[in-house]
Amino acid sequence: MFRAASSSSCTLVGELTVANEATRVEAARLASALRDTRVRGTWGEVQLRRVLELAGLTRHVDFSEQHTVDAVGDRSRPDVVVPLGNGRCVVIDAKAPLDRFLDAANAPDADAASALHREHAKAVASHVAALASREYTEKINGAVDFVLLFLPGDPFLAAALDADPSLLESAAQRNVYLVTPTSLLPVLRGVALGWREQQASDAAAEILTLGRELHERLAVFIDHHSKVGEHLERAVRAFNQSVGSLDSRLAPTARKLAEHGVESQRSLAAVVEIDTAIRPSRLAPSGAPPALAALAPADPETGLASC
Fold first, then answer.
1. 210 vs 150, 215, 290, CA distance in Å?
2. CA dihedral 270, 274, 275, 277 (to 10 degrees)
3. Which of 71, 196, 51, 42 is nearest to 143 (CA)?
4. Are 48 and 152 in contact (CB under 8 A)?
5. What is the pLDDT of residues 101-147, one digit of tens each?
6. Residues with Cβ < 8 Å from 112, sequence gap 6 or more?
7. Three-class SS string for 208-262?
8. What is the spatial distance between Cα 137 and Cα 131, in angstroms, rounded to a whole number?
9. Which of 123, 120, 121, 137 is nearest to 174 (CA)?
10. Which residue of 40, 88, 121, 257 could cross-link 96, Cys pair, CB 3.0 to 4.6 Å?
11. Residues 39-67, buried b or exposed e (16+ Cβ, 10 A)?
């Protein structure tokens, strides 16, 4: 029994050793990848895009990536440009200065780690200076008077501020503000909500315009339709007059001729007057002119127009 337990313990220790070695190898690969400038840049851009999408902004719709800026003797591309509802826009550039930060994580003592953190803060400050020198606020139409420098992790900014507490203030003096996923997300969320309110406002304005247009077109249609009713009324009046003339003048003469044998093989059909009344439009207020009326038969008992 003791041998079985000892054998089981040895097996577990061996498995843990293998798992620990695999973890160490993967961590080394990750650290090596993060030391590659291109990999770090791509990772920072991906993290920035994730924050934008998490805030409710849609790629190619609510923000544009790698927006090319052409200026005299200069051509640059900020990582992201986020339009605002008032026609302005915010420029965001992602940076990932991790060399000294990773070295500090593996430093042999606290003094070495502090020195490396100071170097890390200087690296962040150099990115601030480089970003300020690009003058995106002057080159991009509608850009607000500051640029956001995005660090893809809160520990990166925290380590830099621990080493240089004046970093935020000095960056702000250059119109560059340091942000991380935690601090950028609420800002972008506010931008997304602002866009929704702007869309709702635009929709309300469009509905108002369409309503006025519909009312105008309805008034024109009623005017034309009322003219049709007036012509129909005159036609009915003329028809009834012709029926009266037929009954009082033509029919008596025709009957007298028939009495003398002057008639055809066909009989004369009776013609009756039309007593259809004009139906007033329900859209017209009381006392409105006849131009807002349409033609329809009326109920003889109630005097109301039938549907």
1. 43, 8, 27
2. 170
3. 71
4. yes
5. 877 877 788 888 888 888 888 999 999 998 888 888 887 877 888 99
6. 104
7. HHHHHHHHHHHHHHHHHHHHHHHHHHHHHHHHHHHHHHHHHHHHHHHHHHHHCCC
8. 11
9. 137
10. 40
11. ebeebbbebbbebbeebebeeeebbebeb
Residues 6+ apart with CB under 8 A from 196: none
Q: Are 80 and 92 in contact (CB under 8 A)?
A: yes
Closest CA to 129 of 77, 175, 74, 73: 175
Tell me how far CA of residue 190 lies from CA of 145, 146, 225, 235, in angstroms. 18, 17, 51, 67
CB-based contact 137:147 (threshold 8 Å) = yes
pLDDT tens per residue, range 43-89: 888 888 899 888 888 776 777 787 676 655 566 778 888 888 778 88
Kindly state the average pLDDT of the residues 219-247.
Answer: 86
Site of tokens 């029994």: 1
- Given this model, what pLDDT does residue 31 score? 55
Q: Which residues of 256-283 are buried (b: 16+ CB within 10 A; e: fewer)?
A: eeeeeeeeeeeeeeeeeeeeeebbbbee
Q: Which residues pair with 75 in a beta bridge?
A: 70
CB 124 within 8 A of CB 167: yes
Backbone angles phi, psi at 259, to 5 degrees: -65, -25
Where would I find the H helices in 134-180?
A: 136-139, 154-163, 167-173
Surface-to-core class of residue 145, CB atoms within 10 Å of its CB (0-12 exposed, 13-18 middle, 19+ buried) = exposed
pTM for the model: 0.59
List the one residue out of 294, 275, 274 whose CA is nearest residue 284.
294
Q: How far apart are CA 234 and CA 232, in angstroms?
A: 5
DSSP string, 175-212: TEEEE-HHHHHHHHHHHHHHHHHHHHHHHHHHHHHHHH
